[in-house]
UniProtKB/TrEMBL annotation, chain A:
<dbReference type="InterPro" id="IPR027417">
    <property type="entry name" value="P-loop_NTPase"/>
</dbReference>
<keyword id="KW-0547">Nucleotide-binding</keyword>
<dbReference type="InterPro" id="IPR017871">
    <property type="entry name" value="ABC_transporter-like_CS"/>
</dbReference>
<feature type="domain" description="ABC transporter">
    <location>
        <begin position="4"/>
        <end position="253"/>
    </location>
</feature>
<protein>
    <submittedName>
        <fullName>Peptide/nickel transport system ATP-binding protein</fullName>
    </submittedName>
</protein>
<dbReference type="GO" id="GO:0005886">
    <property type="term" value="C:plasma membrane"/>
</dbReference>
<dbReference type="InterPro" id="IPR003593">
    <property type="entry name" value="AAA+_ATPase"/>
</dbReference>
From TrEMBL, chain B:
<feature type="transmembrane region" description="Helical">
    <location>
        <begin position="133"/>
        <end position="158"/>
    </location>
</feature>
<feature type="transmembrane region" description="Helical">
    <location>
        <begin position="89"/>
        <end position="113"/>
    </location>
</feature>
<dbReference type="InterPro" id="IPR035906">
    <property type="entry name" value="MetI-like_sf"/>
</dbReference>
<keyword id="KW-0812">Transmembrane</keyword>
<keyword id="KW-1003">Cell membrane</keyword>
<keyword id="KW-0813">Transport</keyword>
<dbReference type="InterPro" id="IPR050366">
    <property type="entry name" value="BP-dependent_transpt_permease"/>
</dbReference>
TrEMBL record, chain C:
<dbReference type="InterPro" id="IPR000515">
    <property type="entry name" value="MetI-like"/>
</dbReference>
<dbReference type="Pfam" id="PF19300">
    <property type="entry name" value="BPD_transp_1_N"/>
</dbReference>
<dbReference type="InterPro" id="IPR035906">
    <property type="entry name" value="MetI-like_sf"/>
</dbReference>
<dbReference type="Pfam" id="PF00528">
    <property type="entry name" value="BPD_transp_1"/>
</dbReference>
<feature type="domain" description="ABC transmembrane type-1">
    <location>
        <begin position="97"/>
        <end position="294"/>
    </location>
</feature>
<feature type="transmembrane region" description="Helical">
    <location>
        <begin position="175"/>
        <end position="194"/>
    </location>
</feature>
<dbReference type="GO" id="GO:0005886">
    <property type="term" value="C:plasma membrane"/>
</dbReference>
């Protein structure tokens, strides 16, 4: 069953002063559609600046799309900062990368985890205390950690606290924005596995955002590949990894270290991703694409189906 | 006192130096006097002793009966000085509290609403900042008359614009930081975000701001009282005493000098202490 | 041409809005402070008289009509008569303007003439005993309130030494002490600011480069450091003027100087609202124009600001 559906959403940010001359816009997200199923994980992968975080914020209803719609459990999201919107936060939660900034450094871990319960009026103080203990245990922390302050914890422990806090009100959707990118490799694996265990246990729908295809592949049932605000390819995780169709996805997959063989077909991408303020015309990827032709420089490829549950936006792929 | 913040090239003091220590001692003495004035004062401030009118202080021909001499009605200058310090500091204390509260409220409102509300508030802040406060205070005194409550409230308007700017800056910085938006996305009411998270995290800087506002209010209060438009008799304040002493400047200069010196030393001490506190607590306030 | 307009337009608009805010504030405070009919006719006035008064002055109209009328009257410089003097308040205030200016202008000149050289000198002899004692003195300069400073000067120069008169505005010597009182505090602020600005400019790279080319130190200071340091000092002018206006009220009171400040104090004590509001608006107008002028001049001095900073505040 579909928990969250993004329908052709677009988000642009105005640049410069509103008073003089025609306004320019930074198009962060351009016509993105994706689904998150209940109990399943959809991963978004792409380089920094590709609009994946903005997509995550729109999916959570933290900012409105300029066009397109977001449906959560089949219903449009309420107006931002309205009473209904605040009440709905209970069901959709966010886990972010910078845990030190995201946790108020004046509050103890217990107080931080109990805060969403207090905000939504869940339980009485005694039952909240018990729930905090459960949650601490659930994310692999001891009750002693509850008395500490965020800066006294390691990065991995803080990420566990953020996770416990997000899970406290028993949400049905969790958006994870680069949840492990700031952590050491060994800790990354712990947190990712914890996340997957908890998902199994609680039946959460996950939207997992990362620049790291390796991690995304590990957690996701479906993968959405974004480039400069647009979806270039999406489909089931194994299909995407085994047979990437878009040249950009191919480059990402080839750059991913695999145990046997190492980097066997490494396709190096020349250059940096272009700035979203001046996107190239035609296919946004063409300046870096090793296979680019004239048609790629002139017209924007549409996202078209390629087999079941699979879509690709590339002129060179035969649909 | 604004210019004290201009100094940028001085290295931060490593330990407390002698001027800071002296300044701290003096300020503590003033605070103690404000609290203990009724215990310290040998006489009632209104007790008139016409036989000992304009008696000089000890060391200038006076006796231990009146250490700092007496005024034109034979009232004990030392006792009046203690009570004046008490009044001046109390008024400034109440006013500073109001100024910080009002300023913080307005600054937070501007930071929360952004857009038109913010622009309107910023314009008001700029207007207030461009007008000399003394003139505005005088105009309001003319309209509303004078009572102690009103006077404290009026003094509480002093520096609100600076505190509002400070609070707005802090709130905007805090909102951009993760914890505020994280709490918002948990579903917290904006009041909770501002009062439970942003306010406690900004409190230290706001308090440093208050230490700048406080001595300036003491000066404005004594100025208005000097003009006869501030604290009214039978209460006394430092400005009231200076105004009274001015009439007897040729015959009894101690009446003028005692409160004047207290004002001067306190102002310098607080300025020295404020610089130290700024360096110590909050390097960003520069 | 349009660049000039783009730069100046928002600033002029902002200044106009500021004045409107002060006028509105005055209106609100006046209306909030009580019934003007009762205030002017006194508590013993009969009801029909009060009614007639209200009708005559439009006080029976809705508040917004009263507000519009008030703003229009302010635009026509019609502020009513002083209760005390029975003359138009505007005339009463403007009679005093020359005397206050006679104090403030020399004091402002003194501020610059003392503050800038002293600050520059201290900067060039940074961390010597001269620098330290100058900086210590400036702390006194800007923390001692002007009324205390004035009285101390009277005590020293009039009472003890008998050099200058302690009050009045009749002789050339009468100017010395009030101007000194008003100017010294500002001079301390300017000196500190000039010192900081000079130190900053001196430490910048192009000064180092200039002295590397074999130019003398004196030339570096005169042609490079000083002109660059002086621009930020000039922008302090607005702040200085505000301090001078507030200081003038106290200084005039100390020295019995019959200027606007003394008029204001007397009017406040007697609740002569017409005069008080004229002075408030005059001060607001002066301060706003001074700040606007400084803003525009700053753009002339520093052309980089014209392009980039026009929209934001």
């Amino acid at each position: 069953m579909t928990l969250l559906r993004l329908n052709n959403i677009t988000r642009r940010f105005p640049l410069g002063s509103p008073l003089y001359g025609p306004r320019k816009y930074l198009v962060a997200v351009d016509g993105v559609s994706l689904d998150v199923e209940m109990g399943r994980t959809t991963g978004i992968v792409g380089e920094s600046g590709c609009g994946k975080s903005t997509t995550g914020r729109i999916a959570l209803g933290l900012e409105p799309p300029d066009s397109g719609g977001v449906l959560f459990q089949g219903l449009p999201l309420p107006r931002i900062d309205s009473k209904k919107w605040r009440a709905q936060r209970r069901q959709m939660q966010l886990v972010f990368q910078d845990t030190l900034a995201a946790l108020d450094r004046r509050m103890t871990v217990s107080a931080l985890i109990a805060e969403p319960l207090a905000i939504h009026g869940i339980g009485d103080p005694a039952s909240r205390k018990q729930r905090v203990a459960e949650l601490l245990h659930g994310v692999g922390l001891g009750e002693g950690h509850g008395m500490l302050y965020p800066h006294q914890l390691s990065g991995g422990q803080r990420q566990r606290v953020v996770l416990a806090r997000a899970l406290a009100p028993k949400p049905s959707l969790l958006v994870c924005d680069e949840p492990v990118s700031a952590l050491d490799l060994s800790v990354q694996a712990q947190i990712v596995n914890l996340l997957m265990d908890l998902q199994q246990e609680l039946g959460l729908g996950l939207l997992f955002i990362s620049h790291d295809l390796r991690v995304v592949r590990h957690v996701s049932d479906r993968i959405v590949v974004m480039y400069l605000g647009r979806v270039v390819e999406q489909g089931r995780a194994d299909a995407i990894i085994d047979q990437p169709a878009h040249p950009y996805t191919q480059a990402l997959v080839s750059a991913m270290p695999r145990l046997p063989g190492g980097f066997d077909h490494y396709v190096a991408l020349p250059g940096e991703p272009p700035s979203p303020t001046d996107r190239p015309c035609g296919c946004p990827f063409h300046p870096r694409c090793p296979l680019a032709r004239d048609v790629c420089r002139q017209s924007l490829p549409e996202l078209l189906p390629l087999g079941p549950e699979r879509q690709v936006a590339c002129h060179l792929v035969r649909h | 006192m604004k210019t004290a913040t201009v100094e940028t090239n001085r290295p931060p003091p490593r330990s407390v130096d002698l001027p800071t220590l002296l300044a701290g001692g003096w300020v503590l003495l003033m605070l103690f006097t404000a609290l203990a004035a009724p215990l310290m004062a040998p006489y009632e401030i209104t007790s008139i002793d016409l036989r000992h009118r304009l008696a000089p202080p000890v060391g200038f021909g006076g006796t231990m009966l009146h250490v700092l001499g007496t005024d034109d009605l034979g009232r004990d200058v030392a006792s009046r000085l203690f009570y004046s310090i008490r009044t001046s500091l109390l008024v400034a204390f109440g006013a500073t509290a109001i100024s910080v509260l009002v300023g913080t409220g307005i600054g937070f409102i501007a930071a929360y609403f952004r857009g038109l509300v913010e622009h309107a508030l910023l314009l008001m802040i700029d207007v207030q900042a461009s007008l000399p406060f003394l003139i505005v205070a005088l105009a309001m005194l003319a309209c509303f008359g004078n009572s102690l409550t009103l006077f404290v409230a009026l003094m509480g308007l002093y520096g609100w614009e600076r505190n509002a700017r400070l609070a707005r800056g802090l709130a905007i910085t805090a909102s951009a930081q993760g914890y505020a938006s994280a709490t918002r996305q948990l579903g917290a009411h904006p009041l909770r975000v501002y009062l439970r998270h942003i306010l406690p995290n900004s409190a230290a800087t706001l308090l440093v701001g208050a230490t700048v506002t406080f001595p300036e209010i003491v000066l404005v209060e004594s100025g208005l009282s000097f003009l006869g438009l501030g604290v009214q008799p039978p209460m006394t304040s430092l400005g009231v005493m200076v105004a009274a002493g001015r009439e007897y400047i040729t015959r009894a200069s101690w009446m003028l000098l005692a409160p004047s010196l207290v004002i001067v030393i306190t102002a310098v001490a607080v300025s020295v202490l404020g610089d130290w506190l700024r360096d110590k607590l909050d390097p960003t306030l520069k | 041409m349009s660049a000039v307009f783009r730069f100046a337009g928002p600033k002029v608009l902002r200044a106009g809005l500021s004045i409107l805010i002060v006028v509105t504030f005055t209106f609100v405070v006046l209306r909030a402070s009580g019934d003007p009919a009762l205030q002017i006719l006194g508590p013993s006035a009969r009801a029909p008289d009060l009614e007639a008064f209200r009708r005559h002055w439009g006080l029976d109209q809705p508040l917004y009509v009263q507000y519009v009328r008030y703003v229009l009257a302010a635009l026509h410089c019609d502020f009513g008569n002083s209760m005390l003097a029975g003359k138009p308040a505007l005339q009463l205030v403007f009679e005093r303007v020359p005397l206050t200016l006679a104090l403030m202008l020399p004091a402002l000149a003194l501020t610059m003439l003392i503050g800038i050289p002293v600050g520059a000198y201290a900067a060039m002899h940074r961390d010597t005993w001269v620098d330290r004692s100058v900086m210590m003195l400036t702390v006194f300069g800007f923390t001692v309130p002007s009324f205390v400073l004035g009285l101390l000067l009277i005590l020293i120069f009039s009472v003890t030494l008998g050099l200058f008169p302690s009050g009045g505005a009749d002789r050339p010597e009468s100017f010395v002490l009030p101007v000194l009182t008003l100017g010294l505090g500002g001079a301390a602020i300017i000196a500190r600011f000039t010192r900081s600005a000079m130190i900053e400019v001196l430490s910048q790279l192009y000064i180092v480069a200039a002295s590397a080319k074999g130019v003398t130190w004196r030339q570096v200071v005169r042609h490079h450091a000083f002109p660059n340091a002086i621009i930020p000092v000039l922008t302090l002018f607005g702040l200085m003027l505000g301090g001078q206006v507030a200081g003038a009220v106290l200084v005039e009171s100390v020295f019995g100087w019959p200027g606007i400040g003394q008029l204001l104090v007397v009017s406040v004590a007697n609740r002569d609202l017409a005069v008080v509001q004229v002075i408030l608006l005059l001060v607001a107008l002066t301060m706003t124009s001074a700040n606007l002028l400084m803003d525009l001049l700053y753009g002339v001095f520093d052309p980089r600001l014209r392009g980039t900073n026009s929209g934001s505040q």
